[in-house]
Backbone:
């Protein structure tokens, strides 16, 4: 019997942070890159069990799923539960494009009183609560890589990146966390 390749999780065993910033690899999740015209949003929202956000820098959460607005016709949809994102969108009856990016992406959870300061070591966005409130999201740069950033709490963020860049992102965050002040 032939042995099968074993896929290791990105950032398995990664550890970093400081008293002001906690870093944690996120659990595996299902993800799709979703593209659709405005007339398909209602049907896709119903199929996914949440209202796809239609305003810049916003997200929506429901039923273990989160949809992040990335552009006028583009969303990143994350399911921390059973998945089924491709099946749900296919059953919507709406014209759309959905690509499973579950194994391409991974996420790093950044939390603590110095979280925004650590992220700003490599991200040009104003991450103050006024400019980037809870639920805000954006596709941006972190150091030399493209990421999608979601604010999940007053002092908590989810940084989505390609798994091939995850060691770089985690290392930069770990270094920045040591400089973050409480």
Residues:
């Amino acid at each position: 019997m032939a042995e099968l390749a074993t896929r290791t999780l990105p950032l398995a065993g990664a550890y970093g942070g400081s008293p002001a910033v906690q870093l944690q690899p996120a659990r595996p999740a299902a993800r799709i890159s979703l593209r659709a015209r405005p007339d398909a949003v209602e049907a896709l929202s119903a199929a996914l069990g949440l209202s796809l956000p239609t305003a810049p820098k916003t997200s929506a959460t429901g039923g273990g799923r989160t949809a992040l607005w990335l552009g006028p016709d583009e969303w990143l949809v994350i399911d921390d539960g059973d998945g089924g994102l491709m099946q749900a969108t296919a059953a919507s009856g709406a014209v759309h494009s959905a690509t499973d990016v579950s194994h391409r992406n991974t996420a790093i959870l950044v939390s603590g009183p110095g979280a925004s300061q650590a992220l700003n070591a490599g991200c040009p966005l104003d991450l103050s609560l006024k400019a980037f409130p809870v639920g805000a999201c954006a596709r941006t740069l972190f150091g030399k890589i493209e990421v999608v950033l979601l604010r999940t709490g007053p002092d908590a963020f989810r940084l989505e990146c390609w798994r091939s860049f995850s060691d770089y992102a985690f290392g930069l965050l770990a270094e920045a966390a040591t400089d973050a002040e409480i």
Observations:
- The first strand starts at residue 22 and ends at 25.
- Strands lie at 22-25, 30-36, 59-62, 65-71, 74-79, 96-100, 105-111, 137-142, 145-153, 156-162.
- The chain has a mean pLDDT of 94.
